[in-house]
Amino acid sequence: MNLLDENFPDPQVEKLHRSGVRARKIGHGIGRLGMQDPEILTLLHALRRPTLFTLDWDFSGRRLCHPGYCLVYLYVRRQDAATYVRRVLRHPEFNTQAKRMGAVIQASESGLRVWRRNEDEQLFAWR
Questions:
Q1: How far, in Å, CA of 21 to CA of 89, rounded?
Q2: pTM for the whole thing?
Q3: 76-127 per-position pLDDT tens digit
Q4: Among the listed residues 97, 111, 29, the one whose alpha carbon sits nearest the alpha carbon of residue 69
Q5: Structural contact between residues 81 and 99, judged by C-beta atoms closer than 8 angstroms
Q6: Which of 3, 57, 65, 68 has the fewest CB atoms within 10 Å, i.e. is most exposed?
């Protein structure tokens, strides 16, 4: 399941849906509006293998690694968020749910920075 943080711009959500990416936005049919970061993490633990895409820097770094979910922090302009969601989902290292689980990913124009529990940080270029 692909989740979008509530701070994800609505025009970008629509762009994702038009391009065929299935994603649900927190506060719209899942969770509730105004959820704090710890509540979002609790929600992720309750769901089956979710990937959360967010523009919130608080969701980056090794400390948030967990085998039951994936966090993707989009370090990009808000108007480019949908483009980078699609790029992450199509990247050969992360193009399946199984490949993403346990990772915290920072996606930026220059590439991907990835943390996994008990592993060294990895860097991947866009293809």
A1: 9
A2: 0.95
A3: 999 999 999 999 999 999 999 999 999 999 999 999 999 999 999 999 999 8
A4: 97
A5: no
A6: 57
